[in-house]
Amino acid sequence: MEFPQQQKPAGDGKIVYPPGVKEITDKISNDEVVKRLKMVVKTYMDMDQDSEEEKQQYLGLALHLASEFFLRNPNKDVRLLVACCLADIFRIYAPEAPYTSHDKLKDIFLFITRQLKGLEDTKSPQFNRYFYLLENLAWVKSYNICFELEDCNEIFIQLFKTLFSVINNSHNQKVQMHMMDLMSSIIMEGDGVTQELLDTILINLIPAHKNLNKQAYDLAKTLLKRTVQTIETCIANFFNQVLVMGKSSVSDLSEHVFDLIQELFAIDPMLLTSVMPQLEFKLKSNDGEERLAVVRLLAKLFGAKDSELASQNRPLWQCFLGRFNDIHVPVRLECVKFASHCLMNHPDLAKDLTEYLKVRSHDPEEAIRHDVIVTIINAGKKDLNLVNDQLLGFVRERTLDKRWRVRKEAMMGLAQLYKKYCLHHEAGKESAQKISWIKDKLLHIYYQNSIDDKLLVEKIFAQYMVPHSLDTEEKMKCLYYLYSCLDTNAVKALNEMWKCQNMLRSLVKELLDLHKLPVSEANNTAMLGKLMSIAKNLPDAGKAQDFMKKFNQVLSEDEKLRIQLEMLISPTCSCKQAEICVREITRKLTFPKQPSNPFLEMVKFLLERIAPVHIDSEAISALVKLLNKSIEGTADDEEEGVTPDTAIRSGLELLKVLSFTHPTAFHSAETYESLLQCLKMEDDKVAEAAIQIFRNTGQKIETELQQIRSTLIPILHQKAKRGTPHQAKQAVHCIHAIFNNKEVQLAQIFEPLSRSLNADVPEQLITPLVSLGHISMLAPDQFASPMKSIVANFIVKDLLMNDRSVGNKNGKLWSADEEVSPEVLAKVQAIKLLVRWLLGMKNNQSKSANSTLRLLSAMLVSEGDLTEQKKISKSDMSRLRLAAGSAIMKLAQEPCYHEIITPEQFQLCGLVINDECYQVRQIFAQKLHLALVKLLLPLEYLAVFALCAKDPVKERRAHARQCLLKNISVRREYIKQNPLAQEKLVSLLPEYVVPFMIHLLAHDPDFTKPHEYEQLKDIKECLWFMLEVLMTKNENNSHAFLRKMVENIKQTKDAQCPEDAKANEKLYIVCDVALFVIANKSTACHLDCQKEPVLPSKFFLVQDKEFKNDKEYLTGEMRQMLLTGKPKPAPVLATVNKTLTVPGRRIIQKTTTAPDTTSNTSTNSSPLVTANNKNSSTDSSESRAQENNENPVIKKDETKKDEPSQKLVADAGIEASPVRRRGRPTKAAAAAAAAALKEAGALPAGGGGGKGRKRASDTTTDSINVKMSKQSQQQSDEGTKRQIDLQR
């Protein structure tokens, strides 16, 4: 619009004042000016736009009021009144102002704007006039006149700054509304918003300003909401220049763009409609810090409570998710932290986040893996429904993380969830069921080697799973039902935990006992040994040793501290007493107070492990009451999710375990009365557990509880005579443990049982044999002689040497316990009786042991069919082979019998680990490992594990390797911890297993053609299976020691058959293969070895000095084949296609590898790359499920000490032909047999190409003969190799 020309006032330029108002000039005082202006203000206030005459009349006055005298008047009252007049003038003369000069208009509006600062003080007497001024300006939209001014932006900026600066919390809604109207009209009716004006609005959103003036922030927020359609373009332009074009100079707010975006998004997402695509561009910036800033911003936008950005802008959301895989660590970390808020505020996005969190849970950065756990756990603690099973699975995985901080966070997080939802049931049974696996998983971690993990599991158990702060009844109820719901491995872990704590208590008790003895060198040495053992059970063993020495010093100086510690570990210490003792001991060690006291922390670790915070007499009593309620049917078993039978059985098992660790707590008539009731129950397991509890805790029954004694004795007699085998064993041991007249009691059982033995009724023979065996072992002086006639006349002659019944000829190599014939079960128990009888005597004066060993060897040679009448079934023969092998191994644990076991008998025993039946191999290996790891068996039996390299089942090889690792580490640790062990290095040092291994392999029945590659390859694999573990480290020049030991063996003769040239040659060939393997593994093996190895004379005959064996038994071609798997290429061909080489570079020969059937689960493969030693194999579980039967169900870890068995559901297999040699076929032969089976159609489709255990025949026709009928098989040659029933 064009401004009109200056209007002329009426009366030839003379100013007309309202009636009663005198002329206002600079000649009068300020007070008079104010007085006259007030009347002018009143006049203009009463005028309206229709008063044309008055408008013309007072036009001169209007022009006069805009003069410099008024606009620059120093009196603020004058300025306020003039401003009010001017505002009214703009209202009256609207839409055309009486002022035409652009400069004059600018001055007027800047003047009015300055007066608006008076709005700040609401308590001012003039505030109403300031409010009137604001109201007038807003209502008339007077500032819109400025749009035509070239520099109107200056006026608007000043106005906005003024309004934002004056607003405060004392202003009412009307003031804010008028300010809003005034500013919004300028934005919405103008041609656009300049950057400077936009800055005056946006600056109020910056956190620093926002905190200074909350009302200004609210005003800006409301203004932006109202003007979103108009201002959005200006905002987009600003962010486009800063974000995309990088022009940070366009605004002083450029450095706050991300804060502004966050605030604008919170105000109205529509303000950023055009900005969001620009953020996607910034997310892909090359600058890591810039990406980090954008990620932080978007994390807040996506994670905000009511944000719909993810659904509205899917491309940006997907681009943001991509930053979870950013190369910049802080970016990934920020993304993971965001996920927590996102899961809580937007459960619908959990699916999108899951995959990315999965990847980040395996992030190489520890901090990121840690925060993934924190993210998931925090969301789960808020509401379990926010985290799906997959997310919880990530936390579960991290409990096995390589970093302690991550493992700890995962374990503690799961423990918190368990306590919240399973213990306190804060979200109902459904949520509790969802995470019911946590209790098992946490306890499984106790199997880890790290002491930190074990300590944390103990802490979690005491604080989260069974909180020790609960009262006794509630605590025991919690433990009772927890134990009932745990899986098998978790139960074992919990039992192990109590066992470890009890062992540590024993160590502390022994230490305190040493303090009571006079000071001596021997006493100090013993103390040091105890302190070292205690320190091994605490974190950071190095520091723990120092702190334990310091603690021991404090104990020696402070008698009161010793008394408190003795009370703490006393069997009669109650849980409440334990808390007091721990508090007192801690208080004594707290002085002087320090900010950080690592010594005190270490002692606290010790006290937490040994303090009985759960179990005391009161707790056992509460457990027994719960058990009684379950028996009576009045307990809450069903409500707790277990059946009454399960509760009773688990409750008894729990009490049985506690009877080992806290026997004193059981000593009460009430407890024993309840256990007597359990003895009368029909459940065999319950009765067995009850007897064992009596055995462990009943030492004072005879003297203090006569009534219990009189009731218990007849029950024990009855169980020993007619109970189950396990009950009979426990009953005999119970009588022996708790009664003074045990000889009389045992005789009352022995006499009638020995007279009633009848081989014709094997069903009634098993329990008597168990009882007689254990009686003769526990009381050999009294019963060894009577047993000799029973053994000779009945056990051997009548039972073992006779087959009265014909076995089930179904061809299976193993069958379930209930399918085993009573006669075979009786024979197995007869073998065990022989062993127990000999173990009781512990001498071989009567040569009974020699006879027994010959009998057991004969059973192994005959493959379990001692009579060779072919009446016994294949599965029963497997049972008897296992029993015979286990028996020899058991006798070898007694030194007097180990001496008389011949090398041939040792080899027969060892070959059981290569038995054709999977279960025999499995159970025998487990028994072998348990005896070795307890240092009960001589070192030579460790060599048996080398034969496992030939096992076609990957799982068995992996198990054998773990057994080797464990046994070797146990022996090395034992040598370190026991100085006296140095004198017995020959029987303890793991390296000394090598001579036994070489001798065993030289006599392997499979090793018949010592110059054939396939057989040598098997020997090499067996050697490497053991040597790989032994040579992991070159401690004390052990590699050179091994080489020297093998070289020394080559200078001896085989003691088993010293004059047999072929046997000696096989021994030397195995030595050469061993030297070949050692040399290829280690360069250090050629160093000098000062120590002279000692060779066992039982296996090797040392020759005189003139004997020198320097012959190389392996040809160059054979070495090449063992190294590469194929013969060295002919020289002519090598010349034709000679490989181009670079000087100094090694040529790596490529070999074609066949599928793996021999590799271990270890990532450390043999250094000798062979062609056939890496054959593919199916999963261990699959292979195990396919061995021996078509659909067997094999349960792990269900091997029992007295009667090992595997519950299998088996289908019919293939009848095998008998064979006269022990051991099992080579893997190559097994594979060939399986291929023949498949070709012949004997195996179902898809089931014939895996790990076969059929015994291969010597010829191809022998393999194909598998498809013959049972009748034709029985008529086949005796020389046909046994075939194993295995579906692959």
Automatic annotation (TrEMBL):
What's a single GO BP term from this record? cell division
Q: What transmembrane ranges does the database entry give?
A: none
Which SUPFAM superfamilies does the entry link to?
ARM repeat
The cellular component terms of Gene Ontology attached to this UniProt record, alphabetical and capped at eight, are:
chromatin; nucleus
List, as start-end ranges, the regions of compositional bias called Polar residues: 1168-1180, 1258-1277
Name where it's found.
Nucleus
Low complexity bias (residue ranges)? 1151-1167, 1226-1243
> Which keywords, in A-to-Z order, does the entry hold?
Cell cycle, Cell division, Mitosis, Nucleus, Repeat
InterPro entries noted in UniProt:
ARM-like, ARM-type_fold, Pds5
Assign the protein's first listed, main location to one coarse class.
nucleus
User: Basic and acidic residues compositional bias: what residue ranges?
Assistant: 1181-1205, 1278-1288
Keyword DNA damage on entry: no
Please, which domain of life does this record's source organism belong to? Eukaryota
- Sequence segments annotated as region (Disordered): 1144-1288
UniProt keyword Plastid present: no
Protein name according to UniProt: PDS5 cohesin associated factor A
- What organism is this sequence from? Poecilia formosa (Amazon molly)
